[in-house]
Amino acid sequence: MQNYKKILLAAAATLAFGAQAVAAEKLKLGTEGAYPPFNLIDASGQVGGFDVEIGQALCAKMAVECEVVTSDWDGIIPALNARKFDFLIASMSITEERKAAVDFTEPYYTNKLQFVAPKGGEFKTDKASLKGKVIGAQRATIAGTWLEDNLDGVVDIKLYDTQENAYLDLSSGRLDGILADTFVQWEWLKSDAGQSFEFKGEPVFDNDKIGIAVRKNDPLRERLNKALAEIVEDGTYKKINDKYFPFSIY
After folding, report:
1. Partners of residue 205 on adjacent β-strands
2. Cα Rg for the chain, rounded, in angstroms?
3. Residues paired with 213 in a beta bridge
4. How far is the C-alpha of 130 from the C-alpha of 135, rounded, in Å?
5. Residue 191: strand, helix, or coil
6. What are 32-47's pLDDT values in tens digits?
7. Confidence (pLDDT) at 121
8. Backbone dihedral angles phi then psi of residue 30, each to the nearest 5 degrees
9. β 47-48/39-41 pair status
10. Can you give the pTM of this predicted structure?
11. Domains of the chain by range and CATH?
């Protein structure tokens, strides 16, 4: 009887250890949820988009469970550093200023900046032609920074908390044009709201590297880089890319 009890105790201990061993690591994936088609909240309240699906594919490669957490864009880096989530995948441009606050993975896509304005109207993108126009962009983005660095004093710059609010003002006639990521503009131009607008001129900046942010010196960065290389290699990245775009953005 004594030996039987010992066997039962040993079996229970083994099961408990096994349960702990297979318990999945849990991480929180941070995004904005207001930047379609990259990240958005749908009519049912679910967070989705290209960024989120790439993030979930990375989690699958790392064999971790990931919970999606949203944050307002203006406070998204402080939220990461306050540990509200573990990594940030929200179409964030890799800049020297941001690299002082967080670390970035290798780029997971490359973007461009391009103007959008009403169809048919004259809208040239040289400084002389833009002088006096009211141009919108999302605040704390590479587009907003580009306008301030290159057209401050030339155009009236209006910055918005979300890209969607910038489009609302463009649609209502309060803006002459918008500068934003080409791929986001491309998606909006396909919508009912965007049908009266078009791209103007060539991209003004075409080497905007987009990365995943983690806290400084976090080893998660290298795990994400490894997982990113794997999803590119095995075709997972292309499958997600093709769901959103008829061309490669990698």
Report:
1. 113
2. 23
3. 88, 104
4. 9
5. coil
6. 999 999 999 999 999 9
7. 85
8. -100, 140
9. antiparallel
10. 0.86
11. 24-110+209-244 (3.40.190.10), 111-207 (3.40.190.10)
